Amino acid sequence: MLDKVIFCMKNTDIVKGRIDSLKEAGVSVYLTEKPHELERQKWNEDTLLVTDYEDWQLADIFLAVPRIGYGLSYHGSAKYVVCDMEALDKLFLEMVYCRYYGMPLVIAETPRLLIREMSLSDLDNLYELYGTLKDCPYIEQLYDIEKETEFTKNYIQNMYGFFGHGLWLVIRKSDNRLIGRAGIENREIDGTTEKELGYLIGRPWQKHGYAKEACEAIISYAAEYLECGRLFLCSHKQNIPSIHLAEKLAFKEYAKDIDGMNIYCRYL
Q1: Which secondary structure element, helix H or strand E, spans residue 242, and what is its range?
Q2: Phi, psi of 32 (to 5 degrees)
Q3: Which of 201, 227, 229 is nearest to 214 (CA)?
Q4: Is 68 exposed, middle or buried (0-12, 13-18, 19+ CB in 10 A)?
Q5: Residue 211 domain boundaries
Q6: What is the pTM (predicted TM-score) of this model?
């Protein structure tokens, strides 16, 4: 189990306020300005070295450390296990922290958009978003509030928590407005479960390039963090704007008019 954190930086004063919290979580903390002063027995597979506090942004993220197991031989109770220290990047620690405290994880950020997981507190805004698309024949509307709440709880637990992906929220940074959804879901294609890129943008915010901007960020995320070899995109055969977006995103036609849907594929 990871149980030590060494802060190695010129200014260690900025982390001292979190030492008590880390110790309460069972973490041994060491502060130093000179790496060569570290005692050799403190630098082992149970230790996390932090060289730049600003890179992590949130000091609370280190409270996730005791909940991560380490090594192929680990047999403890930690929910997340890594095989090497290189897996402990900022996004991974943020994911563990958010899962533990029930917070939505930020997936990606673009010049204009923030892409993050949804929470139950987003439901009112979600209904407002879908209300702008009531006349769209390609969009499946939300359930009534009671059923949608239960659906969202299960979705957060099973899709985000188990698969690590799903449909996320697209937030416009300039006004913190929910303008769409985009993400990666599972779809059976040719008898195999594949990852499918999906998206929708509310009517008032269409034709501004938001869908392409969000999808490009998600494609990069899928390649880098989900290690996807390919992504699929399914569009109704008469949904011309969606077909044009697939082409702009370098998806190629995979199958045509399958139950009214065209299927596109892009290798990453």
Answers
A1: helix 240-248
A2: -155, 150
A3: 201
A4: buried
A5: 106-267
A6: 0.78
Count, residues in the chain: 268
Whether residue 166 contacts residue 184, with contact meaning beta carbons closer than 8 Å, is answered with yes
Is a pLDDT exceeding 60 seen at residue 70? yes
Q: Are strands 113-116 and 4-8 parallel, antiparallel or unpaired?
A: unpaired
Residue found under tokens 């990606």:
108
Structure-block tokens of residue 78:
């930690």
pLDDT-derived band at 79 (thresholds 50, 70, 90) equals confident
Domain stops at, among 101, 121, 144: 101
How much is the pLDDT for 55? 45
Q: What are the pLDDT digits (tens) for 114-137?
A: 999 999 999 999 999 999 999 999
Distances 42 to 32, 62, 98, 166 between C-alpha atoms, Å: 12, 18, 28, 40
- Are residues 95 and 132 located together in one domain of the fold? no
CB count within 10 Å of CB 10 equals: 8
Mean pLDDT of 182-207: 97
Find out whether 98 and 92 touch, Cβ atoms under 8 Å: no
Q: Largest Cα–Cα distance of the chain, in whole Å?
A: 67
Distance CA 184, CA 153 (A): 18
Question: Do 262 and 159 belong to one domain?
Answer: yes
